[in-house]
Amino acid sequence: MNDGQDSLNPQGPRRKRSKGIYVLPNMITLAALFGGFYAIVMAMNGRFDLATVGIFAAMVLDSLDGRVARMTNTQSAFGEQMDSLSDMVSFGAAPALVAYVWSLNDLGRWGWIAAFVYCACAALRLARFNVNTSVVDKRFFQGLPSPAAAALVAGFIWLVTEAGLSGQDWSWYIFGITLYAGLSMVTNVPFYSFKDLHLKKSVPFAVIVLIALVIAIINIDPPTVLFGVFVAYGLSGYGVYAWLRYKGRPTSVISTSTDEPDERGLHED
To answer: Which domains does the chain have, with CATH numbers?
Structure first.
């Protein structure tokens, strides 16, 4: 016996639309998460070269999941949370643990303090990004993005490991880099986001040639080139900050644009 609502709806009672999970973007996010997990496992086994490659692979995959979700119109709140948790593992916990096992453990309490500060700053940076997405100028990141911070730590370890040197001789160097990367994530220093570059627009032929040259240069010595690139990027924000202060312009990236970021609900990290 029904309540009479079926007579008002000639097509019968409406079924609630089932909620599912989009496979493609979340599969990429899971692959990025695996990169961070793989880095931790390899560090525990003493394979620091593979550990750093795992972090860099996670960076590449993390840059794809949001773009794939927008291209296929498969954005979701679930994907947003998945991306945030994946970033915390791959760019927060993994670099801190890899650095600690590689060399920071030789410094005793100072080593694990540096690793914890980095990990905590990564968590704070991701949480702040989540709540400030709609009010931050899309041209800049508020603080060093977590993938770039992870690249600073992992890139230095990769560079030293490829040179055949022992991590024990570089403990205080990685200590300084870990603290610098961690604290830079929670500053208000503006770092260029590259989000205003539109890949769908046509470009001159010379741009394609330039991209090919960049790829060739990276392949000459990937550890050295990549670490150098991320060192330059890790310092660029402070250069922008100093320039804005010198010109008397606002240095905060909050509410400097009336446009919402194109990647609202999706992470950069």
So the answer is: 22-194+203-247 (1.20.120.1760)
